[in-house]
Design brief:
The protein has 205 residues and is α+β, with helices and mostly antiparallel strands. Helices cover 16% and strands 42% of the residues. The chain folds into two domains: 42 residues; 144 residues, Immunoglobulin-like (Sandwich). It has two helices and twelve strands. The strands form two sheets. Strands 4, 5, 6, 8, 9, 11 and 12 form a seven-stranded mixed sheet that branches. The longest helix is centred in the first third of the chain and has 19 residues. It starts with 6 loop residues before the first helix and ends with a strand.
């Protein structure tokens, strides 16, 4: 049987070994070197979490003036056994000036580690918390002040066949755009924010 040790167990083991090692078997220099090695190992173990998967989850993205953070990814099924993935993110204006921020229509993409794709625009998917801009219109009144945040929720959906199950990790992409009102019905796109998260873990199943 393969033995496994948690970070806490390994830490206790190292402390025990350090306490019972015979001091007269090593020179002072050797003891100092050994103590340094043990200290480094203990610090490494203390930095580990019980769930090794949790250390690989990218939870934030930063661009020139915008910071995005994943708050949750919650998979589920509706009454017809179709997949519904609720992805909630927080967007924060990191500039010193207000910005009008929109979601770029149909730019959202969600793919799980099984390879299934989920849409916010089909099968009852939706986008909440931010205006949607398309090729002909944008909302310049959705102002995000300096340092202010906005929560955006995507409901990504997929029609599932019998035997198909939702994955545990997801790649997500969505583009947000800063727009400016030029007056007389004219709107200018200032910049794109192509927000992306890779291998993000589901909050619950």
């Amino acid at each position: 049987m393969k033995n496994t040790f948690s970070a806490g167990t390994s830490l206790a083991f190292l402390l025990t070994v350090a306490s019972i090692a015979p001091a007269n078997a090593q020179s002072p220099d050797q003891l100092r070197q050994e103590n340094a090695r043990l200290k480094a190992r203990i610090e490494a173990l203390q930095s580990q979490r019980c769930d090794p998967d949790s250390t690989t989850v990218p939870v934030s993205w930063s661009g020139d003036g915008l910071h995005a953070r994943i708050d949750s990814i919650r998979p589920g099924l509706n009454n017809h056994d179709d997949a519904r993935i609720s992805v909630t993110i927080t967007l924060r204006n990191t500039t010193s000036t207000p910005m009008a921020l929109n979601y770029q229509s149909r730019s959202f993409s969600l793919v799980d580690d099984v390879g299934y794709q989920y849409s916010a625009h089909l099968y009852g998917g939706s986008v909440k918390g931010i205006p949607t801009a398309n090729s002909s219109s944008a909302d310049t009144t959705a102002i995000l002040g300096p340092g202010s945040s906005r929560t955006v929720t995507f409901i990504a959906a997929r029609s599932m066949n019998r035997g198909q199950t939702i994955g545990r990790r997801f790649d997500m992409n969505a583009t947000f755009i800063q727009v400016e009102d030029l007056g007389q019905g004219r709107v200018r796109k200032v910049r794109d924010y192509p927000v992306a998260f890779t291998d993000a873990r589901a909050s619950s199943l």
